[in-house]
Amino acid sequence: MIELCFGPILRYETHAIMSAKAVREYRGKKLLARHVKDLSDGKHVVDDRSVLVKPETNLDDLPELEPWLVEDNQMLVVKPDQLIKRRGKAGLVGIKLTYQEVKEWIQERRNKEIFIDGVKGILDTFIIDPFVAHSQEDEYYICIQSDRDGEEVLFYSEGGVEVGDVDSKAKRLHVGIDDSLSVEMMQTKQLLHGVPESRIKDLSSFVATLFKVYRKLNFTYMEINPIVFAQDGKTIVPLDLAAKIDETAAFLNASDWGPGPLDLPPPFGRQEFPEEAYIRELDSKTGASLKLTVLNPKGKIWTMVAGGGASVVYADTISDLGFAHEIANYGEYSGAPSTEHTFEYAKTLIGLMTKEKHDPTEDGKIFIIGGSIANFTDVAATFAGLIKALKEYCSVLRSNKVSIWVRRAGPNYQEGLQMLRECSNETGLDIKIYGPETDITAVVPLALGLEKLENFPQFDDPSHIEPVRKKLKSSNGDSMPSNGTNGKGGPQMKRIQSFHGQIADHEADHKVENFTAKTRCIVYGLMPKAVQGMLDFDFMCKREQPSVAAMVFPFSANHYTKFYWGTEEILLPVYQNTAEALEKHSEVSVVVNFASFRSVNGSVMEILENHSDQIKTIA
Predict the structure, then answer these.
(1) Domains (range + CATH), the chain
(2) DSSP category for residue 246
(3) What does the alpha-carbon distance between residue 545 and residue 496 come to, in Å, rounded to a whole number?
(4) How many helices (H) and strands (E) does the chain have?
(5) Less Cβ crowding at N or C end of the chain, within 10 Å?
(6) Distance (Å, rounded) from C-alpha 419 to C-alpha 148?
(7) Mean pLDDT for the stretch of residues 74-79
(8) pTM
(9) What angle, 0 to 180 degrees and rounded to 10, lies between the N-to-C axes of helices 250-257 and 25-39?
């Protein structure tokens, strides 16, 4: 049996990855300007003159920083840069304006609320570009989007606001993940059908370069509408751009995406909470993963979940039980965060949860602290940070009648759960605590009042000494408390649908290959911070040898990388391909995969198809 441990997945139009994040048009154009010239050996040049007007930008001082805005009677284009679609049709584009007119245009709309495509939001960020003189016949449409097998290129010989349904009109060309887009391929497939013959050579060369940039920077989606020929008949200009990028490829592309961190704005209409920005800043300072998105600040169900895959499982379970409208947040803490980082993460969540004064006539909020069985995260260490936050906020948690539900397992989980029990006894907080003997999602129906507490003994219940599970009576539908309570004396939340719990005795269903002190893995991807964290934990646990046997990095030749084993320096091999790494390390049974969206499918399929006799877990 091979166990697959997946990270979070979220649907995005034509591709399905949570890591695909939209970038501002300003940053997308800057990236094109920087890399198109390099990858075309100077044949194509994209004008890098573009200005981002942020909420704090002083428009009067801007010409001093960007003199081109007022030089040579420069005409300009201005529009919001906040991930808004169809800005032209909505009257949100100012065309052929002087800088003074641009200032007036922005001031009329700045900090004003608008309603567009069913979403209400505040306009506060704008982009200013040079005006490019051209005719309607000079406009074209191009889109590149990634799928499991490579990229699909869509091209249409007309572009602009009135382009219409490009899905039905555009010519399509699919490029396999191991192939490249050549001028010859475009000519053979007639991708640029409808373009004047005199322009096909230059435009196909530009499209081929654009494709190289797309792959090099790990974009997952890019739409340019329109892309135009300027009046000189030679210069090709992307006038309007929308793009998404795979943020998990930062270990490959951080320097290419620079200068500075990649700006990933929230969707229009959803203002970023200061707490989200704070967690993102924390995340950037640690090798662990800390993520937070506030979905409904007034929601009753808050989660603090360890692991990207587990966060999806908990969100899905809450939704399946009919409480999606009450989910307050989505996120994860994983990758062995320190005690202090866990404290900051938990404190931020609790602060959001208790920000609004509790109505004493209503039920209290629910705080679910969940996770699967950790591989190398020290549960006791992270729970020390959690407990610090619970103690700091214990009075406000009690006054808000917050019930806390915990399910966790992994290294030192017994100590961590016992620490929580002591915290509950000391603070008087209502904490229900479960370990690996309970199904990962069982705390959800318990917290929602859809299951009886006596059916799920807590981790320190004497019944776990001689495990005897009560059979759930689903035939007569009495899995719900018959007295209208949630099994703990409080009022039951509104029942949306019936729920029949699972018997959490996984050992009775199939053979589980557990991790031991001798389990070893290879890490796919050059992730020295993560590997060093694993080695530090191994050494702390007094393992005889590191749990990481080697790394795989396809983009360089075989070499060695230095790490610390306690106070000693050791060298770990880095192989160019998985097959060689597994051949030379036959004791390895786990692969920890840090591959980006572009390569994760291929790397996992290679293991499943060729190495399933050796590899039993892919994380």
Answers:
(1) 20-257 (3.30.470.110), 274-508 (3.40.50.261), 521-618 (3.40.50.720)
(2) E
(3) 51
(4) 17, 26
(5) N
(6) 45
(7) 97
(8) 0.62
(9) 90
